[in-house]
Amino acid sequence: MGRVEGKVALVTGGASGIGLSSATLLAKEGAKVVIADFNVDGAKEAAENIKKQGGEAVGIFLDAGNEESIKAAVDFTVEHYGTITVLFNNVGLTNLRKDLDIVNMDLDEWDRLMDVNLKSVLLGSRFAIPHMIKAGGGSIINTASMAGFAGDSLRTAYGSSKAAVVNLTRYIAVQYGKDKIRCNGVAPGLILTPAAKKNMPQAMLDIFAKFNALPYHGEADDIGHTVVFLASDESKFITGQTIQVEGGHYMANPSITDVENYMFSMKQQG
Ligand code: NAI
């Protein structure tokens, strides 16, 4: 028996990267999966691949910046598979050209990123929760980011929206826990998905690798496996948490290298 056998999952942004891995692994572990994505051809292709591997999935269109479209995706899931017991709110965007520092950032881009990254989590949950209550419970999982746990010189809207996702996760957990609805987040560090590879030159990837505690980059399946765990009953006493899956990148004291160099130079001087 699969780890999420009998569950029905809606995965947003499931045509690529983290969403694709999660949808594939959820289906492999027995869930019926709706893959919802702006890239509807990619969503359908992903579902076909899952079916070829013996899983159950269907691909549909979703615009995570549009309330009606989010409602339609939840309604479709319930009509097609009879219920919704897992919601993976995964869509998220960044824009390195317009999402800049406080003074210079494009305010329209701020609004767009808040809609797509944050409001979509609120809306997906708002539409799914009544069905989950009817089903006797469910698991909502939100993709945050390590950018929601630290300040940065750019990507102000992205980081702010993801920090808000971390707290929205707690609000959902607190408000619907007694209905047996759990809500958790996953905060990826740099994960080598198509989006990350497109946005980051090799030199930047090398810098990230250097500061990981582990000697390798994260991959989409590292998040996918975490999502399966949070969707499954194995995590039935975990709620309101955001699990940081980031290779220890943010674990060390940032001044460690300078401190070590200082100690070394002191030792040299006797
Ligand atoms: P990706 O670009 O590989 O996949 C994102 C998917 O979302 C694509 O299939 C795209 O078509 C879809 N999408 C984009 N906008 C959409 C919209 N408005 N409506 C519906 N679908 C839409 O991206 P990746 O890397 O898998 O990112 C997934 C999530 O992980 C995002 O929330 C991102 O912020 C987060 N994340 C990713 C990190 C990384 O290093 N890859 C690090 C931290 C967080």
Layout: helices, strands, pairs:
Elements: E1 8-12, H1 17-28, E2 32-37, H2 40-52, E3 56-61, H3 67-81, E4 86-89, H4 107-135, E5 138-143, H5 156-176, E6 181-188, H6 194-199, H7 202-211, H8 220-231, E7 242-245, H9 256-268
Parallel strand pairs: 1-2, 1-4, 2-3, 4-5, 5-6, 6-7
Helix pairs in contact: 1-2, 1-8, 3-4, 4-5
Low-confidence stretches: none
Number of strands: 7
Order of helices and strands: EHEHEHEHEHEHHHEH
Do you know the CATH architecture? 3-Layer(aba) Sandwich
Terminal CA distance = 64 Å
Tally of structural domains? 1
Key features?
49% helix, 7-stranded parallel β-sheet, binds 1,4-dihydronicotinamide adenine dinucleotide, 14% strand, Rossmann fold, 270 residues, alpha/beta
Write a structural description:
The longest helix is centred in the middle third of the chain and has 29 residues, at 107-135. The protein has a single domain, classed as Rossmann fold. The protein has 270 residues and is α/β, with parallel strands linked by helices. It is globular, with a radius of gyration of 20 Å. Helix content is 49%, strand content 14%. It has 9 helices and 7 strands. Bound molecules: 1,4-dihydronicotinamide adenine dinucleotide (NAI). The site of 1,4-dihydronicotinamide adenine dinucleotide has 28 residues, from α1 and α6.
